[in-house]
Design goal:
CATH topology: Rossmann fold
CATH superfamily: 5'-nuclease
CATH architecture: 3-Layer(aba) Sandwich
Order of helices and strands: EHHEHHEHHEHE
Distance between the termini: 19 Å
Oligomer: single chain
CATH class: Alpha Beta
Number of domains: 1
Radius of gyration: 14 Å
Number of strands: 5
Largest sheet: 5 strands, parallel
Structural class: alpha/beta
């Protein structure tokens, strides 16, 4: 299973995008997909229409909840990477992936790279 960041959820709907190509290749190799509830929230904020939401929901097997365990992990990630305000949501998304032991697919590798030494595994767009 691969956890999709917001940019994969959005650009995964754009025909011909790198994200579509990667999603199809992963799917063909037997991978399934999930999304952090935080990333799903960002995706739903759009702009997307109901058909696009339905299409992406069909591709994503599960929406990972953000509960106590994820909150504790997000706080750890945030605090151990310097408490930069711009990393708050990214820490929440990274925490969903790390607590569920799944890699995160993101086009924002630079933003998430700070979490790699703390246990996050990144895939996609290298």
């Amino acid at each position: 299973m691969i956890c999709l960041n917001t940019n994969y959820l959005i650009l995964g709907l754009v025909p011909g995008s790198k994200e579509v190509a990667e999603l199809l290749a992963w799917s063909d190799s037997g991978e399934s997909f999930c999304a952090a509830s935080t990333a799903w929230y960002e995706f739903l904020c759009g702009p997307v229409d109901s058909a696009q939401v339905s299409t992406m929901r069909g591709a994503v097997r599960s929406i990972l909840p953000f509960g106590q365990q994820q909150a504790q992990e997000a706080a750890r990630l945030f605090n151990e990477t310097g408490r930069r305000r711009r990393l708050r949501v990214d820490a929440m998304i990274a925490a969903a992936a790390t607590t569920n032991r799944v890699p995160l697919a993101t086009g924002n590798r630079d933003d998430f790279a700070v979490f790699v030494p703390l246990g996050l595994q990144l895939v996609g767009q290298e």
